[in-house]
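We treat protein structure as text, and this decision shapes the records that our systems exchange. Such a record has a labelled line for the sequence and another for the backbone structure tokens. The record that follows is passed on verbatim for readers who wish to inspect the format:
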Amino acid sequence: MTHPDQDNTAFKSGIVAHLTTLLSQGCDALGSAGGDLTDIAEQLRDMVNRPPRVAVVGRLKAGKSTLVNALTQHHIAATGSLECTMAVSLYSDGAPARAEVHGLDGEVSRVPLRDGPLTDLGRPLDEVSHVHQFLPNAQLRPLGLIDTPGTATLTVENEQRTRRMLIDGASDTRRASEWADSVVFLSDSAPREDERAFLSELGMTPLTLVSVLSRADSFGEGAFGERDPLDFAREHSGRIEKELGGAVYRVIPLSGLLAESAFTGRVTNDLARELASLAPLNREQLLDVVELDDPGRIVPGFTAEQRNRLLDTVGEYGVMAGRAAAASGGAVALAGWMREVSGVDTLTRVLVEDVRYYAVLQRAVRVLDELAELSTSHPNREHVRWVQSVTLAQPAINLVMLYRSYRDTFSSTPDSRLLPLLRRAINAASAAASVGLPRDAATPEIRARLDQELGELQQMAMLPLSAAEDEARERLIQEMQRWYRELG
């Protein structure tokens, strides 16, 4: 199903490429003045030119590292209770494979990566700021990932590490290349109050925040209930999305275990044969296989070791619902089924096609915010103001300013009636789309709708609006007038 906010992929890709070039040129101009502006510009340039980065956050044991493995289609993130899972880890495409361990003292030590995830930090955890891992991985080219140790957990140190990276680091221009551009939040329900408070501190907008219902294959009564748990999870995600009222971009149900196992080579022919041997069983017999100490009493020759391996790889839902795929097509069919039902393809598409676009707009706003700060505080403010004025004069910056108005309006007035209009304008690749009409709408119809919406926006000047809303209203009027002129 196509989400209403999805727009022309070519349009979004073109904006991403154009803004990246424009912002990079702005950073070059900023640094040309020398002094400390050179260092500031270098950090901003690194941030501008790297792939947008998604931070994966959630409570302890929410399945964050499992999701990272699924999204990268490799077992690169350690899971379980290893000390490495307690450190914030950045993952980027790069060769040779290596880990750079950044200490709180500013020192960086390099550790070569072998097959599999990093297992030794090389220094005490309480001395580590974060780990940056580089791996030759095609899935990391459009989006980098940040795996975090948890928020609102029983372990205060874990949350402090996450905050130090995602919140404190985001306010430090010297660490601009480490900033997160968007967030995937894992939970089994709508965000709790402490989680909402944390998410609000990240400085994201609803367009750069995706909520994931983790372990969707265990929702409802679970794998052996009367209703498919994934159906229950999809219905539940719709309710949460409605409850949040536009505070997140999407709520997506996901089985991280199925996705990770499907992509990381854990589905072998032997495992598929073992699962296929359970295909003839009814629900009660299969439940006995899962619960009995000796499942061979139900399926002769079937061992507890085989059963446990199946549960570790596909979970109870995979055992229950994946038997037919394994029996009909072996490992290939089973892995394909796991990928299809897991929800990982939907999440990947949303991140790469939609959130990546919004993340670049968010990144551009950060550059403009930094220029605005420097234009009043830096000794060489005249040079900064020149760079700022040239940058703001570029037509593509109109979209960035609309996005900033969206951010500021949501922050000050989260129920503002202007937010849907701003969201639509940010995505509009045509005059018709800017007023919610199909691309093939007739020009007179588009003009009539523009006239109507312009009139409504102008009448809003008589209403009590917040400062952010008033600025957003003006920007929307300018954008609609631009589309009106382009119609001729």
